[in-house]
Design brief:
2 domains; alpha/beta; Isopropylmalate Dehydrogenase; 329 residues; binds 3-isopropylmalic acid; binds manganese (II) ion; globular; two-stranded antiparallel ribbon; Rossmann fold
Length: 329
């Protein structure tokens, strides 16, 4: 049975990198039945559609969603991000955002970012907007259940890995409410995983370690906003954002999970053949893994090893294909 995949190429370089990802996965042997969904900033500019509920319901029928990038400079910030990407993450309850990194020295570690709460929940508002007395608040929503399920997933993942090490990253010295909830939950859940070694870093210190000493990390768990920022940094230290892949997971599989490169739509290079497709290809490998096709996923991952970190899209794609063919012989 083919995997039924909803494809959202999206904006900017999204369609360019997704087309390579689909070609590579198929060349590696993946059986994919894909349906294109025309969604993104471009669609919003055409007819005002972002992600209406009927399309969301349609997406639920697929095994997985593969997304390129969404957002375009012609649409004000937040409209497409909140209306499409965050709506999908929240409504499909994709509470784990898994972002693996492989450093130039071969060390591999993974960040788990809570994906449905925190400042991303959108709590807040304006008072007296546009006046000299304007007030803007932006709250952070942290539920015990939300933190616990994400932390529990992280302990399970850490337990399944060779090193069995899990670091909580937060800012407990300043965020004494949400930090306290996360820290307490982390400690309580850790009692159930005596085989997993734990550590805690404040997020500012973690930024230094990500750059200077990332080999200390095996699995890292953190909240939504810290995870957003930290994973861009992770991408930068692991050879550039053009290599960074991610999975937005609904671990209970009550809805399809969504796979996307960490990078954005990069409107400055759209259509020039300069987008690095590797992050999208590796996101495809994460998708195949989650769908149970780990053999093909591994073939795709191996094919991405040692390909140039930058260059023309077609050259990088050709290097990936060459590795695929070599892997077969
Ligand atoms: C990411 C992106 C998104 C986020 C944006 C596009 C809303 O930066 O996936 O990291 O902030 O989560
Ligand atoms: Mn980000």
């Amino acid at each position: 049975m083919p995997h039924k995949i909803a494809v959202i190429g999206g904006d900017g370089i999204g369609p360019e990198v997704i087309s390579v990802a689909l070609d590579v996965m198929r060349a590696a042997g993946a059986d994919l039945d894909t349906t294109d969904f025309r969604l993104g900033g471009f669609r919003y500019l055409e007819d005002g559609v972002i992600l209406p509920d009927d399309i969301l319901e349609e997406l639920r029928k697929y095994d997985a969603i593969l997304l390129g990038a969404v957002g375009t400079p012609e649409v004000p910030p937040g409209v497409i991000e909140r209306g499409l990407l965050l709506k999908a993450r929240f409504e499909l309850d994709l509470y784990v955002n898994l972002r693996p990194f492989v450093l130039p020295n071969g060390h591999e570690f993974v960040v788990i970012r809570e994906n449905t709460e925190g400042t991303y929940a959108g709590e807040g508002g304006f008072l007296r907007k546009g006046t000299a007395d304007e007030i803007a608040t932006q709250g952070s929503v942290n539920t015990r259940k939300g933190a616990e399920r994400c932390i529990r997933y992280s302990f399970e993942l850490a337990r399944s890995r060779a090193r069995k090490h899990l670091t909580l990253v937060h800012k407990t010295n300043v965020l004494t409410f949400s930090g306290d909830l996360w820290d307490r939950t982390f400690r309580e859940v850790s009692n159930e995983y005596p085989d997993v070694e734990t550590a805690y870093n404040h997020v500012d210190a973690a930024c230094i370690y990500f750059v200077e000493d990332p080999t200390r990390y095996d699995v890292v768990v953190t909240d939504n906003l810290f995870g957003d920022i930290l994973t861009d940094l992770g991408g930068a230290v692991a050879g550039g954002i053009g290599l960074a892949s991610s999975a937005n997971l609904n671990p209970e599989r009550t809805a399809p999970s969504l796979f996307e490169p960490v990078h954005g739509s990069a409107p400055d290079i759209v259509g020039q053949g300069l987008a690095n497709p590797t992050a999208a290809v590796l996101s495809g490998a994460m998708m195949l893994d989650f769908l149970g096709d780990s053999k093909t996923a591994e073939r795709v991952r191996l094919a991405c090893e040692g390909v140039p970190g930058s260059g023309r899209t077609e050259e990088i794609a050709a290097a990936i294909y060459a590795n695929l063919v070599q892997g077969e012989t």
